[in-house]
Write a structure and sequence with these properties.
Blueprint: H1 12-18, E1 22-24, E2 32-39, E3 50-55, E4 64-69, E5 82-86, E6 93-98, E7 108-113, E8 122-127, E9 137-141, E10 148-153, E11 164-169, E12 178-183, E13 195-199, E14 206-211, E15 222-226, E16 239-244, E17 249-251, E18 254-256, E19 261-266, E20 272-277, E21 288-291, E22 303-307, E23 311-312, E24 316-317, E25 320-325, E26 332-338, E27 348-352, E28 362-366, E29 380-384, E30 391-396, E31 409-413, E32 422-427, E33 440-446, E34 459-463, E35 466-470, E36 483-488, E37 491-492, E38 496-497, E39 504-505, E40 512-515, E41 526-534, E42 539-547
Parallel strand pairs: 1-26
Antiparallel strand pairs: 2-33, 3-4, 4-5, 5-6, 7-8, 8-9, 9-10, 11-12, 12-13, 13-14, 15-16, 16-19, 17-18, 19-20, 21-22, 22-25, 23-24, 25-26, 27-28, 28-29, 29-30, 31-32, 32-33, 34-35, 35-40, 36-39, 36-41, 37-38, 41-42
């Protein structure tokens, strides 16, 4: 569609920030262990189109979650949209909320906090086709019983208020959490320029309206709350990320139609702090945004931005996700992850807790595939380390289906008390046999530690004499045997090390060895080590990883599954 170009000026500093390291998602260290799944009860309801952790609403001490079924494509019959609440502990049904037919109630869901003072966290549900022809509505729902506390209605036909929603903390200082809602098709300053509304959680009244500026921008298509924004100074304020995936961008190569942009706005009433922009025409940068906590320890909230149509090798649409460190007034590019052709990688992004044990929160990325593709796409959910930038695992959807696994992703919390998070991925197109899609959500977690008999991790130390390795046998089966020690680039599940050096064998069951620094790998290479006991029946392995040129502290996590960073203890 042709429309006037919107010119977004990009500074050289911004371009430098955007040229960040890229990880292409081909190799994986698998560790996404399924916990349980929940299947939708009504065909064609779109169960799993949205999912959000909403806090502990059933009083068992474990966070619970809500699943949206907005009935966007109900088929030949009218179907009421609904939002279902499930126990995070075991996936048991708690209650459901029905919405108006045709409203697409449940297209977006967000945690809010306790706004009615009953001690139970409440939540938000977006219905972007409610109120006349698509004016939209946001419902504040009681977490205790599922009843509506109030609703905030759109005032413009077709604006689609509620397409994106997020809690923003207490903006107006009344002690009650507030929220933001996006209306990406609002026509204020220009047609389809979009708008966002900051709304009082206590009353449902508008605190502030921020309109988009340019035709077709879709300002407010995605939202994320930054608990501590990047505004400089000792009194850093919270921030709000606003996705604008329809923005046109101009740089040295000329206008980039629908490259997309993301605005960071200081709360409660501050101006935009900065604007980030996509790098290619059609990227739709800003289709998704997510809070990633504080990755680098500077006190500011870092974040991710998805561009599900970004090009990937060999030049086809596949999608990308960029991670930014909110350091100072300008972001520093941290990681850039690329999907595979057809992935729509980055259509959904979310922060999660520390999966690797390195002390840094990690990232969830959904790649549900292009819904209009000629060949059905089963979808995927990937987990990456925000510390190392390398992939931790990728779970594919059911082969040969169009279930669009990864359409929505979210952290759930630590359900089993092992110190590691669980997370959720949805597949709204999941079906059983030839029947119409029911939809499904799947809960995953971190695999348990090494099995009995597996040696503990290698302790690694680099000094002037070379690399010193030591390890402890995991049991009698591994004691008294020679060990083969390998060094290589990284572990691919089931294939050991890639580009590894020839093995070096110790003698007499020794469990330590000194190796010269391998010259074949340049300084800065992420190098893994494996020590395997040469038994009659199998090889029990112990793994370690470090970066050449840096000291390698000891660690004890199973690194055939995780990246063993220096902080693993």
């Amino acid at each position: 569609m042709t429309r006037p170009f919107r010119i977004l000026q990009i500074s050289p500093l911004f371009l430098a920030c955007c040229l960040i390291p890229t990880v292409f998602t081909r190799a994986w260290a698998a560790d996404c262990t399924p916990r349980y799944q929940v299947t939708g009860p009504v065909p064609n309801q779109g169960f799993g189109s949205a999912v959000a952790t909403i806090g502990d609403v059933n009083g068992d001490g474990v966070p619970d979650f809500a699943v949206g079924a907005p009935a966007k494509n109900p088929g030949p019959t009218q179907i009421s949209p609904e939002v279902y609440i499930f126990s995070g502990l075991d996936g048991n049904f708690v209650y459901k909320n029905p919405g108006p037919v045709g409203s697409e109630f449940g297209s977006a869901i967000a945690a809010l906090g306790d706004i009615n003072g009953d001690g139970v966290p409440d939540f938000l549900v977006g219905a972007p086709e409610s109120v006349g022809p698509g004016g939209g509505c946001i419902f504040a729902i009681s977490g205790a019983n599922g009843g509506a506390i109030y609703d905030f209605e759109g005032q413009q036909a077709g604006a689609q208020l509620g397409a994106a929603i997020v809690g923003v903390g207490d903006v107006n200082g009344d002690g009650v959490p507030d929220f933001a809602g996006g209306a990406p098709h609002a026509s204020g300053m220009q047609p389809d320029s979009g708008a966002i509304f900051i709304v009082s959680g206590a009353t449902g009244g508008v605190l502030r309206t921020i309109p988009g500026e340019f035709t077709g921008d879709r300002f407010g298509a995605s939202l994320a709350f930054l608990r501590v924004g990047a505004q400089p100074g000792p009194q850093q304020s919270p921030g709000l990320l606003v996705g604008t995936p329809g923005a046109d961008v101009a740089n040295a190569s000329g206008p980039l139609v629908d490259a997309g942009a993301v605005y960071e706005i200081a709360l409660p009433i501050g101006p935009p702090i900065r604007i980030l922009a996509g790098n290619h025409a059609g990227d739709h940068f800003g289709a998704s945004v997510a809070d990633l906590r504080d990755i680098d320890g500077d006190g500011s909230t870092d974040f991710a931005v998805g561009a599900p149509n970004a090009p990937v090798p060999p030049g086809m649409e596949g999608g990308s996700v960029s991670v930014y460190l909110a350091s100072g007034i300008n972001p520093i590019g941290h990681h850039n992850f690329l999907g595979m052709p057809g992935d729509a990688f980055g259509a959904a992004v979310g922060g999660t807790g520390d999966v690797t044990g390195d002390g840094v929160g990690d990232i969830l990325i959904g790649g549900p595939g292009d819904p209009n593709a000629a060949i059905p796409h089963s979808g995927s959910l990937s987990v990456y380390s925000n510390g190392s930038g390398l992939p931790l695992c990728r779970t594919e959807g059911l082969s040969g289906t169009a279930e669009r696994f990864g359409a929505a992703v979210t952290e759930l919390g630590d359900l089993d008390g092992d110190g590691f998070p669980e997370w959720i991925g949805s597949a709204p197109g999941f079906s059983v046999g030839p029947v119409a899609p029911l939809g499904q959500v799947r809960v995953f977690g971190v695999a348990p530690g090494p099995p009995p008999g597996r040696p503990r991790m290698i302790d690694i130390d680099e000094n002037a004499a070379g690399i010193q390795l030591s390890w402890t046998p995991g049991g009698p089966a591994c004691a008294g045997f020679d060990y083969a020690v390998y060094a290589g680039r990284y572990v691919r599940m089931g294939e050991g090390l890639v580009t590894h050096l020839p093995d070096t064998c110790t003698t007499g069951g020794a469990t330590q060895i000194s190796l010269p620094v391998p010259a074949v790998f340049p300084t800065g290479t992420a190098l893994y080590f494996i020590a395997t006991a040469q038994t009659q029946n199998n090889e029990e392995g112990s793994y370690g990883q470090g970066t050449l040129g840096d000291e390698h502290p000891p660690s004890s996590r199973p690194c055939e599954v995780f990246l063993n960073t220096g902080s693993c203890q």
